Amino acid sequence: EVQLQASGGGLVQPGGSLRLSCAASGFAFGDAAVGWFRQAPGKEREGVSCITNRGGGVYYRDSVKGRFSISRDNAKNTVYLQMNSLKPEDAAVYYCAADERRGNSARYYCNDGMRLWGKGTLVTVSS
């Protein structure tokens, strides 16, 4: 079965940092675009950052540019999201997702273009 298990969430103060990880299995991770999405209570799920299968294309939504960084290790079937300078508005459940379809831009995948989804990890930003 396809699994995309996010971990690393927790409680952090504004201005702090967290590193999320997502362990993937059950599909060809190295051929898939992967990314991070988040959903806060009462809000629509939004794409945070996505990366193409070999890392040649990267997308960040404007609100996280300069603060978040996505990376992937295909040998470990893992994608990461380093989050720095966290703000209260970053608080949400963060999900990792993937799509084995190739040839699209990272931005495309981050605009609800993913087909494979996992369970999320909760990030709380509060003083």
What does this protein look like?
The chain is mainly β and 127 residues long. The chain has one helix and eleven strands, in the order E-E-E-E-E-E-E-E-E-H-E-E. The protein has one helix at residues 106-110; strands spanning 3-7, 11-12, 18-25, 33-39, 46-51, 58-60, 68-73, 78-83, 92-99, 116-117, 121-125. Strands 2, 4, 5, 6, 9, 10 and 11 form a seven-stranded mixed sheet that branches. Strands 1-3-8-7 form a four-stranded antiparallel sheet, with no helix packed on it. The radius of gyration is 13 Å and the shape is globular. The mean pLDDT is 96.
SS elements, strand count: 11
Stretches where pLDDT is under 50 for at least 5 consecutive residues are none
Structural class: mainly beta
Based on CA inertia axes, which overall geometry fits? globular
* Major sheet characteristics: 7 strands, mixed
Number of helices: 1
Helix/strand order: EEEEEEEEEHEE
Mean pLDDT: 96
Give the DSSP E fraction (strand runs of 2 or more residues): over 45%
Keywords:
11 strands; 127 residues; four-stranded antiparallel sheet; seven-stranded mixed sheet; mainly beta
Task: State the gist of this model.
With 127 residues, the protein is mainly beta. The protein is built from 1 helix and 11 strands; from the N terminus they run E-E-E-E-E-E-E-E-E-H-E-E. The chain has one helix spanning 106-110, and strands at residues 3-7, 11-12, 18-25, 33-39, 46-51, 58-60, 68-73, 78-83, 92-99, 116-117, 121-125.
